[in-house]
Amino acid sequence: MSALVLMVLGLGAFTAGYLLYSRFISEHIFRLDSEFRTPAHVQEDGVDFVPTNRWVLWGHHFTSVAGAAPIVGPAIAVIWGWLPAFLWITLGTVFFAGIHDAGALWASVRNEGKSIGALTESVVGERARSLFMIVIFLLLLMVNAVFAIIIAGLFVDFPSSVIPAWFVIGVAITIGYLLYRRGVALLWPSIIGVTLLYASMVVGNQIPLSLPELVFGLGAPALWVVILFAYAAIASLLPVWLLLQPRDYINGLQLFIGLGIFFLAVLIARPEVVAPMINSSVPDDVPSLIPLLFVTIACGACSGFHGLVSSGTTSKQINNEQDVRFVGFLGTVGEGALALAAIIACTAGFATLGDWEGYYTAFASGGLPAFVQGGGRILAAGLGLPVALGETLLAVMAILFAATTMDTGVRLQRYIVQEAGTIYNIPALTGKGLSTAVAVGCCLALAFGAGGGGGTGGLVIWPLFGTTNQLLAALTLLVLSVFLLKQSRPSRYTFVPFLFLLTMTVWALLIQLKAFFENEQFFLLGLDLVILVTAIWVALESVSAYLKARKGESSA
C-alpha cells in the first residue's frame, strides 16, 4: 500500500476534527467568551503572565507539547503493525487529545492561570490536589531527564545537528527583542529567522561538532546532559517573551515547514508501506497489543503532559479566550501530524519487508534513529536531497521538539515547586532561584543516578513514562468532567475518554509491576507502586466529587 494513502487519510481526519469537532466543543461545551478578561491581562507581570499574539503562542504551545515522544512512541508501536498505531493516533488526536489539551487550557484561564494540579483543590478537594501534584512532579521529572538524554544521544549520533540546534537560541532572542522592545511586525522576523535556521542546517551538515570523549570524568553524552540542564535552568528564569515564546514560535514554523517538506516528499515519491498492517510474527519480547499500545503512544494521541503545558505556561499568555481553540486544538493537530509522519517514516522508509523485520528485532528497536534514517531515505527519494542532509534536517527537527519541551518542562517544574512552597507555607521554595535549583537538581539526580551513573539513568524509567503520562491525562479529563458539571455543562465528552484511558493505563501498570518484579527492577517497582496508588486515590476522590456534582445537577 502507498504511504500516500495513510498521509491523506490521516491529515484529512485531523482537518475535519479541527474544523468540526473542535468548533462544536468550543461553542457548546466550553462556550468561549471573547469578553472574558484572561489572567494574562489581570495578572500581567511581564515575566510569566504576558498577553501574547495567538500565532506566537500557538508556536510556543505546539513545540512545547510536541517533544520527542510523538516520534518515539509511534516508532516503537509500529512493531505491532501500522494499522493499530494509525487508528489510535487519528482517533486519539481528534476525540481525546483535543478536548483534553484545550479543556485544561480553558479551565486554567477560568481559574487565574492555575496549573491543573492546583486547580484540583477547588474542583475536587485539598487532599486530591496534594496527591495530584505528586503525580505531576514525577511525570515532569521523567520528561526532563529522558528528553535531556535523548537530545544528548542525538548530538552524539548526529554531530551535524549541533550548530543549528544552538543557533536557534540567538535567532529567538533577536526575534523576542524586535517584537517586544522595538515593536517590529511579525512577518519579516519570521521569514528571516526561518531562513537563517535552515541555512544553519546546511552549515551544520558541513561542520559537524562533537564534544571530547572525556571531560572531568564525564563522557560526551553525560556532558551534554549537564550543559542542557544548565541552559534550561537559565532559560526557565528569563521572561517568557525574551526566549521561550520566540524560540518556540520560530521552532514551530521550522517544524511545520519540515513536516511540509516531508509530506511533499511522500507525495512525490509515494513510497510503499513495507511493514505489515497487523504484525502476526512479533519478536518474543514484545508485550500484548492491548493495553500497551495506548501507553506506548501517549504524545501523538493523548498526553497528560499537554495538560501541564496548557495550564502551566500557555494559560498565562492567552490574550483572548477565543484563542483557546486555535492554540489548544490546533497544537494537538500539529502533534498528530508529527506522529503520522513518524509512522510513515518507520514503515515506508525501508526498501523491503525483510529490511524492516531486520531492524525491528525487539520491542525497543524503533525510536528516533528509525525515524531519522527512514525519513532521510524518503526525502532522498522524493526530493533528491542527499541522505545525510535529510537526516540532519530530521535530527534537528527531533532535537528542537525535545528541547522546547524540556525548556517548558523545567519552567513547569519550577512552578510546581513554587506552588508547593505556597501551599505548605515554605517561603524559601516560593522564590524562583531555589525552586529552579530544586527542579534541576532532581532531574540531574535521576539522569545520573537511576541508571548507575553516566547520565543515562533517565532512560531506565522510560517504561513508566507512557503509563504515568496517560494516568495524568485520565485524571485531567476527570477533573475537567467535575469542573464542567459544576458549570452545568455536559461532561460526557471528557468522562468517556477518562474511563477508557484509566482502564488501559491501570491495566498496563499492573503488567509492568509483574515485569519489574520478575526482572528484579526494584527501583521501577517502587516508583510504579507510588504512581499507581497515588493515581487511584486521586481518581477515587475525583469520582466521588463527580458523582456528588451529578447528584446536585439532577436535583437542581
Structure description:
The chain has helices at 3-30, 39-42, 54-65, 69-77, 82-109, 116-123, 126-157, 162-180, 187-206, 220-237, 244-269, 289-296, 304-312, 323-348, 353-359, 368-383, 387-423, 427-430, 432-449, 462-486, 492-518, 522-555, and strands spanning 214-215, 218-219. The model has no long low-confidence stretch (mean pLDDT 87). The protein starts with a helix and ends with a helix. With 556 residues, it is mostly helical. The protein has 22 helices and two strands. Strand 1 (214-215) and strand 2 (218-219) form a beta hairpin. 75% of the residues lie in helices and 1% in strands. The protein is globular, with a radius of gyration of 22 Å. The longest helix is centred in the C-terminal third of the chain and has 37 residues, at 387-423. It has a two-stranded antiparallel ribbon. Helix 3 crosses helix 17, helix 11 (244-269) crosses helix 16 (368-383) and helix 16 (368-383) packs across helix 17. It has a single domain (3-555), classed as Hydantoin permease (Orthogonal Bundle).
Fraction in helix: over 70%
User: Could you name the CATH class?
Assistant: Mainly Alpha
The count of DSSP E runs of length 2 or more, i.e. the number of strands, is: 2
**What is the strand arrangement across the widest sheet?**
1-2
Order of helices and strands: HHHHHHHHHEEHHHHHHHHHHHHH
Over the alpha carbons, how many angstroms does the gyration radius reach? 22 Å
Shape: globular
For the record, give the distance between the C-alpha atoms at the N and C termini, rounded to a whole number.
Answer: 56 Å
Strand content: under 5%
